From TrEMBL:
Keyword field: Cell membrane, Membrane, Phosphate transport, Transmembrane, Transmembrane helix, Transport
Subcellular location: Cell membrane
Positions of transmembrane segments: 31-52, 87-114, 126-149, 155-175, 204-225, 276-298
Classification via InterPro entries: MetI-like, MetI-like_sf, Phosphate_PstA, Phosphate_transprt_permease
UniProt-listed PROSITE patterns: ABC_TM1
CDD domains the record matches: TM_PBP2 (cd06261)
Protein name in UniProt: Phosphate transport system permease protein PstA
Chief place where the protein resides: membrane
Ranges where the ABC transmembrane type-1 domain occurs: 88-294
Length: 306
């Protein structure tokens, strides 16, 4: 068989074209495509159903300006009015403190695992412990912080204690995503930097991390989305307050998950029902806005290729 006829074969005087798919292969390909599309549709149905329910039941209150600049002080379950300012600020403050603590630790640990300890016993031990931490329920993390923060040290139930427990939940998510993003950086970039005489720490700082920055930011947002909706740490480590409290080291604080929990037992009353759905929609919008901001930051901070 010559090169000119490499894609064809002759048999009994007939030319057999091998460029297309056989009937069995075409059927398998079509069947796999249909199954994947069907799985995608089945996964989207509950998501769209949840979003539709939350939006249709909760959009009424969030369109009111009072929802964004007033608290629930003096508002009973039977009374309409007030807003979610106290809960929104509490959620953002505790989430910000969590990110400030968890993100540097997770990123530095991921850099160590990928760049310095690859294949070592220490890396395997750390990876094993991170896998265990990934499966720890939020209530267990909250009870651990309660035992240390309140029982051992005798501190009060405050918002900062909630952030400490959320760090335990956010840390493995950010670390694993950062680790995978760093592994995707081509070794050729590292080798080119080393060939120019650039030290390893500067190569990591100037080449590796900027290349993986978009994925790292996405992992951070996934971690925040993971912890901002947690309720158990809030119930155990800080009491719910309808007043505005912006100090995470003193007093009870409001948060959107505990605001939902506060009124969920009185959803037969229309004012409480409206507040529950509006708080749920507000939490979804906060996560959405943070993800959009992260995408913008990642786009403008990414390494530009010429």
């Amino acid at each position: 068989m010559t090169t000119a006829t490499a894609d064809k074969a002759a048999y009994d005087g007939k030319v057999l074209d091998l460029s297309g798919k056989s009937g069995v292969r075409a059927f398998k390909n079509t069947l796999a495509t249909v199954l994947m599309v069907l799985a995608f549709v089945l996964a989207m149905i509950p998501l769209l159903w949840i979003l539709y329910t939350v939006v249709t039941k909760g959009y009424h209150l969030i369109l009111n300006a009072d929802w964004w600049n007033q608290s629930q002080r003096g508002i009973t379950v039977r009374r309409e009015g007030g807003g979610a300012y106290h809960a929104i600020m509490g959620t953002l403050i505790m989430g910000l403190i969590t990110a400030v603590i968890a993100v540097p630790i997770a990123v530095l640990a991921a850099v160590y695992l990928v760049e310095y300890a690859k294949g070592t016993r220490a890396a395997r031990v750390v990876s094993f412990m991170i896998d265990i931490l990934t499966g720890v329920p939020s209530i267990v993390a909250a009870l651990f912080v309660y035992a240390v923060w309140i029982t051992v040290f005798g501190f009060n139930r405050v918002g900062f204690a909630v952030s400490l427990s959320l760090v335990l939940l956010m840390l493995p998510v950010v670390l694993r995503s950062t680790e995978e993003m760093l592994k995707l950086v081509p070794d050729e970039l590292r080798e080119a930097s080393y060939a120019l005489g650039v030290p390893k720490w500067k190569t990591i700082l100037k080449v590796v991390v900027p290349t993986a920055f978009g994925g790292i930011v996405t992992g951070v947002m996934l971690g925040l989305a993971r912890v901002m909706g947690e309720t158990a740490p809030l119930l155990i480590l800080v009491g719910y307050s309808k007043n505005i409290n912006l100090n995470p080291f003193s007093g009870f604080m409001g948060a959107l998950p505990t605001m939902i929990n506060q009124d969920r037992n009185d959803m037969a009353l229309q004012p409480a029902n409206d507040r529950v759905w509006a708080a749920a929609l507000t939490l979804i919008l906060l996560v959405l806005v943070l993800n959009l901001l992260a995408r913008v930051v990642a786009r403008f901070s990414a390494v530009k290729s010429k």
